[in-house]
Amino acid sequence: MSTPRDRDRDGFDDGDGRGWQEPPHLGGGGSGDDEDRPNVADRRKTPRDEPPANQPWQPPGWDLPAAEPDRPAPRDDAPPAQYPPPQVPPSEQAPYPPQQHPQEQHPPQGFPPPEQPAPRGLFGRRRRKPGAVERVFRYEGDLVGAQGWALQQGWTVSDGTAPQDAPLADLIASAPVRATKDHRAGNVLRGRVGTLELVAFDVVYASGRYLVPEYAITAVPMLGSVPGFRLSPARFWRHRTGGLVPVPSGDQAFDARWLLLAAEDDPRLRRLAQDPAVHALLLGSDDGDEFWSGAGDHIAAIRPDGHRPQLLEHHARLLTAITAALTSGY
Length: 330
Fold this sequence. Notes:
Elements: H1 40-45, H2 132-136, H3 143-152, E1 156-158, H4 168-173, E2 184-193, E3 196-207, E4 210-221, E5 229-233, E6 245-246, H5 252-257, E7 258-262, H6 267-273, H7 276-283, E8 290-294, E9 298-303, H8 309-327
Antiparallel strand pairs: 1-2, 2-3, 3-4, 4-9, 5-7, 5-8, 6-7, 8-9
Helix pairs in contact: 6-8, 7-8
């Protein structure tokens, strides 16, 4: 049994420390074999690689190259230095011309240029592709182009506020669309195409400080009365058709795509329904126009668009064929 007065068996002394010795597992024993073994005490005696006392310590690569006071400072307006190309002896020159850098080479013929990144809108976001409805009913009007075309044809141009433009309000009210009191005629063009006197205008409404065209109307003023009718694509939804009856044409292909509604049984409308020239033009179109007789003495065409030269010519061809079919018996 050991007592507090016993010596520590590991070599430690609880007294004044004069009997302390290095433990054997650290190499501090008294045997001769432990003298050659490195220990902590031997490593402590090894001096460190410290810099001289007069030179402070700094990390490697901290030193900067010595300044050259004799080197002149570059001037901002001085041109860049030009160095002549190295002279190569003729014997060492390459037999072939040097190749161009890949960025300096011209693109091979026959290949399209690389695609440009898609345009981005506000805040750098990628612009959304328009849907099917937006592509079909997008505004394709060309105000400057339509007026330029009209002036080249010798037509007159008005903003819709002239005295002769007042009857156009009744024509807008009779159109087969849901026009409101805010709609009015704008960009009015008048002129002759063949034997017809045409008036073309946009149905516009005010949005802030701008006029927005919503429909394009082209009309032919007739000398006599015109029977009431409506000629529309079969796929269109129709409203205000009370009292109108369909007039079949006898052509299944035409009746599948177009519908003629008449307010009364009139031989002129039966002739219009069976006219081969009208069938050919309408079947070759995109079924995007509607025709009606309005304001008592007008035959008009309407399309959800703004006027442009191509639309003016398109309406002129169709109205020429329709009026010819209605007036061929007179």
